[in-house]
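Module 6 notes. Inverse folding takes a fixed backbone as the condition and produces residue identities as the prediction. Think of it as a translation problem where the source language is geometry and the target language is the twenty amino acids. Below is one complete input and output pair. Work through it position by position during the lab.
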């Protein structure tokens, strides 16, 4: 086999091979170690990838695609308007992968024996990983699998350092931060934990430099429009200025001062008064350090949290290893090292470590296995006709390996001998007993070949089924890869119960992980019908509400997926799952009642319909921010916590920044900030459970009294009031049943409202205007059209059915106060 590692980066990418002994980095045509992740198409249709594309992108932003990795797994379109072209993030990644793959020698590119590992950030979710795999296949890469970037970085570190101990890898790239903590013992690595930040990298430093230094200077010296970010006439100015700022940033790595400079002749832009715009801004290193300090402190806090989750303190860690282009900036390294109290290491090349580590990891993969599992570290050979076997370590980073004989019955006078076919060394004849062992010296990295001889009491050879063994001396060996996040399936805990997450894997559990879950159908599904069972996957550990977690995928079994029969309510659904080393999820659901088998390769969400378009997500940000702000205000009335004020500021800033920049990056950052606010709210709820439960109960009761009671029958009023008293006792006694009772109360409210035509019409119109709450926009549009037709014909029964489908297929709500569960599977 030939092994290849690809670091598909936000700003730069790299490719490396490994032959079992040495790594080889393949340089760009300009002889650079890395290739900018940039595409440029000129007006004649000529396509450029890499350095030339990157340098042309600043002056001609409407002809270029950059930073698209941040939008992998989304439906955000990269628009090259100057050449009337639109590309998806996957299509952009295909071009980078093709370019990198083209650097390899022909014998590697065309070999069926080439295994390729592409790295992805630990923070990538299921959709992002699947989009990366799709791009790899479309690029024509054959045997491919994914690996988390921090794991690859650790492999690279282990190849460079030989001492034992615990170290922290601080991997800051152009777009993301990954933190990994690893323990090394004789070349074997145990990954103790990893974390990071999805939107934290060199690109964010560039934006901060523009917002705080370049933009104010431009507005002071020239008459420019307030909407400079969104005004197409000044897009080139923003991009060229950001590019110049990046050049100055790099210069500050070597000097205390730099000049952000662009002459009028190079810019070619006039202000509103017709004056030629130029840039000439001196900047000191300490100024820049202050600008990036908040992001650096965020990264340091992420490292501290990762240490804490691993049960470690900085005193336990020997050194911090820096990976990624931005870590070439010495003041950054010094700051991180000082704040963490951990010594700095420069064991690896920050720019190429991930690609090199990926290539090394590729050698450890069993490429013949369907799911690309790791090779076994144990081997065995047996004699023909004799109950004799030799067990040995087949893969080790150590310079020696042990072989042990297993002999159930004594054999008088029998001897064995082991020779090295590489060096000519021989053990000589050794008496063969059960448990006889021998340490074999591994003379070289890669494969070491030995031959075993067994002799009878007369010295004659005894036949072996296979007399040769291969022991691979690896660069490093990772024993444990912890899951970077918890992933669960949304389900109902019991019929009529509350919605919970049934976890496939919890954060920190070792990967790969296999298991089986049993569910039951909450409703019947007829073959050929439009209904479906929805296995919604969420990332995170927020218990209430479930949809405050991050939605990452949908495994769906539709009525159109089977030809005949009906799946009755209560039917057993057996879900076999595997979470791979990369974090990718494979699901297979069997339904014995119909003999059906459904696999995630076919039944997972459609990525074309199921992804967020960050270029058109303003409504989603507004909706999420307002809903969260309302919850924070309610909690603030009963709970005094400084974090609530911080959350308010975060939500306001998220909305403001998204509106100000009006670009996909700012939108994604805003949604990430809102997600972090949700996590903080969950912590505050857990720490102040009683008062917040009271707020939630009071809200449901207030809705009933103010709106619903007038429509309720006496029995419904009595049932609601009785359950309210029961829920109140649960609050007072701090019992676990409250959430289920609260869900029941919301369900009763909904049941009463569901009988009112005005409510159905109101809900339909509201859901029709909220496509951002749906994973499948095409299905949403079809349901809206059906509902509008029913409304036009005054067909309330059809409108009810359509509205119920809209309720059940949405993936989230804005306020966490659902009256109707969208889940239709029950935990078995």
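Target side of the pair, the amino acids:
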């Amino acid at each position: 086999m030939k092994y290849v590692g690809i670091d598909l980066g936000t700003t730069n990418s790299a490719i490396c091979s490994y032959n079992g002994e040495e790594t080889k980095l393949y340089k760009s045509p300009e002889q650079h170690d890395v290739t900018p992740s940039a595409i440029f198409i000129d007006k004649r249709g000529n396509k450029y990838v890499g350095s030339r594309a990157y340098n042309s992108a600043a002056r001609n932003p409407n002809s270029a695609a950059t930073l698209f990795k941040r939008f992998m797994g989304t439906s955000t379109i990269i628009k090259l308007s100057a050449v009337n072209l639109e590309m998806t993030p996957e299509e952009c990644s295909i071009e980078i992968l093709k370019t990198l793959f083209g650097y390899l020698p022909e014998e590697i590119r065309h070999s069926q024996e080439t295994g390729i590992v592409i790295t992805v950030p630990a923070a990538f979710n299921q959709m992002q990983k699947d989009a990366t795999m799709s791009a790899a296949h479309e690029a024509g890469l054959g045997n491919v699998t994914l690996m988390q970037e921090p794991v690859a970085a650790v492999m690279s570190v282990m190849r460079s350092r030989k001492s034992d101990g615990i170290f922290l890898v601080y991997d800051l790239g152009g777009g993301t931060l990954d933190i990994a903590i690893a323990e090394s013992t004789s070349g074997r690595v145990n990954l103790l934990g990893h974390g990071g930040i999805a939107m934290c990298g060199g690109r964010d430093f560039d934006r901060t430099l523009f917002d705080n230094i370049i933009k104010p200077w431009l507005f002071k010296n020239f008459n420019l429009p307030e909407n400079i970010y969104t005004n197409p006439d000044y897009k080139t100015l923003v991009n060229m200025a950001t590019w110049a700022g990046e050049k100055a940033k790099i210069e500050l790595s070597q000097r205390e001062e730099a000049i952000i400079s662009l002459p009028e002749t190079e810019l070619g832009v006039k202000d509103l008064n017709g004056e030629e715009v130029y840039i000439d801004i001196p900047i000191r290193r300490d100024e820049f350090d202050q600008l990036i300090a908040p992001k650096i402190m965020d990264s340091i806090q992420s490292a501290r949290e990762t240490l804490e989750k691993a049960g470690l303190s900085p005193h336990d860690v020997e050194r911090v290893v820096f990976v990624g282009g931005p870590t070439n900036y010495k003041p950054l390294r010094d700051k991180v090292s000082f704040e963490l109290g951990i010594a700095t290491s420069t064991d690896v090349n920050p720019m190429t470590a991930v690609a090199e580590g990926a290539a090394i990891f590729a050698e450890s993969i069993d490429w013949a296995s369907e799911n690309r599992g790791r090779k076994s570290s144990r081997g065995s050979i047996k004699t023909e006709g004799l109950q004799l076997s030799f067990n040995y370590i087949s893969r080790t980073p150590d310079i020696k390996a042990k072989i042990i004989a297993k002999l159930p019955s004594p054999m008088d006078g029998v001897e064995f001998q082991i020779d090295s076919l590489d060096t000519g060394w021989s053990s000589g004849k050794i008496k063969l007993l059960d448990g006889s062992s021998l340490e074999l010296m591994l003379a070289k990295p890669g494969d070491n070949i030995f031959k075993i001889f067994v002799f009878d009491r007369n010295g004659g050879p005894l036949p072996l089924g296979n007399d040769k063994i291969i022991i691979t001396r690896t660069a490093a060996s990772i024993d444990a890869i912890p899951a970077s996040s918890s992933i669960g399936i949304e389900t109902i805990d019991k019929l009529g119960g509350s919605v919970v997450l049934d976890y496939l894997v919890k954060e920190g559990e070792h990967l790969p992980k296999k298991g089986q879950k049993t569910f039951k159908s909450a409703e019947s599904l007829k073959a050929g019908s439009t209904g479906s069972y929805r296995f919604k996957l969420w990332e995170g550990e927020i218990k209430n509400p479930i949809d405050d977690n991050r939605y990452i995928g949908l495994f769906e079994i539709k009525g159109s997926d089977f030809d005949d029969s009906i799946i009755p309510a209560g039917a057993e659904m057996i879900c076999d799952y595997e979470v791979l080393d990369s974090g990718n999820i494979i699901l297979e659901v069997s339904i014995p009642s119909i003999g059906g088998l459904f696999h995630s390769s076919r039944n997972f969400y459609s990525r074309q319909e199921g992804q967020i378009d960050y270029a058109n997500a303003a409504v989603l940000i507004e909706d999420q921010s307002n809903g969260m702000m309302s919850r924070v205000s309610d909690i603030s009335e009963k709970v005094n916590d400084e974090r609530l004020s911080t959350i308010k500021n975060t939500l306001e800033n998220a909305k403001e920044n998204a509106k100000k920049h009006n670009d996909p990056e700012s939108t994604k950052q805003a949604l990430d900030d809102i997600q972090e606010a949700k996590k903080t709210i969950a912590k505050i709820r857990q720490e102040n459970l009683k008062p917040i439960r009271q707020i939630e109960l009071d809200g449901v009761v207030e809705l009933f009294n103010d709106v619903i009671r007038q429509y309720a029958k006496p029995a419904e009023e009595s049932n609601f009031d009785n359950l309210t008293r029961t829920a109140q006792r649960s609050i007072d006694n701090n019992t676990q049943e409250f959430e289920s009772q609260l869900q029941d109360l919301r369900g009763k409210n909904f049941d009463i409202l569901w009988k009112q035509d005005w409510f159905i019409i109101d809900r339909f119109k509201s859901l029709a205007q909220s496509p951002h709450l749906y994973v499948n926009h095409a299905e949403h549009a079809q349901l809206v059209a059906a509902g509008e037709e029913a409304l036009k014909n005054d067909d309330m029964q059809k409108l009810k059915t359509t509205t119920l489908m809209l309720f059940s297929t949405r993936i989230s709500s804005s306020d966490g106060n659902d009256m109707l569960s969208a889940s239709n599977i029950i935990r078995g």
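Reference fact for the lab report: Confidence is low (pLDDT under 50) at residues 605-610.
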